[in-house]
Amino acid sequence: MCCDAYKGLLLHSSLNDTNNLRTHVKSCPKKEKSSFAYQKTVHDFYSPLKSSPIPREIKFSVTEACTEFCALDARAFDVMRGDGFKNLAKTLFDADRATSTSSIEITDLLPHPTYFMNKIISK
The Hermes trasposase DNA-binding domain covers which part of the protein (predicted)? Predict the structure, then answer.
């Protein structure tokens, strides 16, 4: 390998590994650093995770409500990972957003349990 600033030849062998290059970099008269002088990290390619835009108080409130849901209705905490639960939560969230000007009761929004039984029996 040849250095442009030093105009010298650097030899590489399995015995010296990268020691010649390391020694040369320390003593090379050309001290300005190029873009190749450092090893890129993952952060150079990907931006770090951004903090959640959800306020901490709201996140805590939702966590408490999910905990109470599982405890009061004897459900496994894993139920919140399911696609059905996520779809229900998103639908309720979207319904609230669509009716944000008026206050609605959640019991008015949710269907009565017999609705499902009638749907199953009719099929």
Answer: 61-114
Structure tokens that stand for 50 in this block: 């951004």
Residue spans per domain, the chain: 1-32, 56-122
* Residue 113: φ, ψ to 5°: -55, -30
Topology, domain 56-122: Arc Repressor Mutant, subunit A (1.10.10)
pTM above 0.90, yes or no: no
**What burial class does residue 10 get, using C-beta atoms within 10 Å of its C-beta: 0-12 exposed, 13-18 middle, 19+ buried?**
middle
C-alpha distances (whole Å) from 23 to each of 13, 20, 27, 29, 31 are: 14, 5, 6, 12, 13
DSSP 49: P
Which residue shows structure tokens 């995770």? 49
Alpha-carbon gap, residue 62 to 56, rounded angstroms: 10
For residue 8, which amino acid is it?
G
Nearest CA among 42, 5, 45, 47 for reference residue 27: 5
> What does the pLDDT look like over 91-123, one tens digit per residue?
988 888 887 667 778 888 888 888 877 777 776
